[in-house]
């Protein structure tokens, strides 16, 4: 009888431990939901006044009849640039929150990915040239439009190219989109986006960590203060959402090559492909 009693006591202890563990997991999940809700609320609260602040600033700067003096104009332009920086930061935090909550709903549509990628890279051409860099885009037409959420692809391309511009002080940047390997007659297109720069490079020991949230390499921090360490973690999560993978190959002082490999469904080989508007 005492054996049965002790077995019963042991079973009870195990079930109590399990219940306690379940309770702890539920409490943690609840805390996580609260954190997500908090960040989501606060970023929305920041976003609205920012939009109301930047709109009039943009208008007055674009208005030739506004009669701004040189110093006023410079001051307003500085305010606008920094406001836009803050806006990007808030948007990044909102993306992170949505991704962590599993709340990113993809809205795939047929996209001429070669034209769209070239257009996106082109957005940063002026910034590259201002920094004395040349930006070369090589996106030959693909055999078919692909089904992808353009907002996701846009973030991937813009983050990678913006980093290449930010961390390169001499030389050039190449943006290439091409199919890899055997291209099937039907089914998804095997695609590779490559963003190559001749910039500061990333030490081997840091290469895996640059995709971690908030991680910045010391050398990069020293050279440019602007950065949060969010961009590449977003790129990694978004490329994974598309079912692909992003990798880096880099040598300090020589440059970096970021490669995103994705298989995207062809949106009908006969369909007419057009780049979506940037909206
Ligand atoms: P941020 O640029 O805001 O710091 P990211 O997440 O985009 O954040 O990048 C993380 C870190 O990876 C950067 O701080 C930098 O150290 C390194 N890095 C990213 N892209 C490059 C690049 N093209 N060349 C060199 N270092 C890079």
TrEMBL record:
Domain Histidine kinase, chain residue ranges per copy? 41-266
Q: Which residues cross the membrane?
A: none
Q: What is the annotated localization of this protein?
A: Cell membrane
- The source's superkingdom equals Bacteria
This chain belongs to which protein, by name? Answer: histidine kinase
Task: State the organism's lineage.
Answer: Bacteria, Bacillati, Actinomycetota, Actinomycetes, Geodermatophilales
What fragment of the whole protein does this chain represent? 270 to 548 of 893
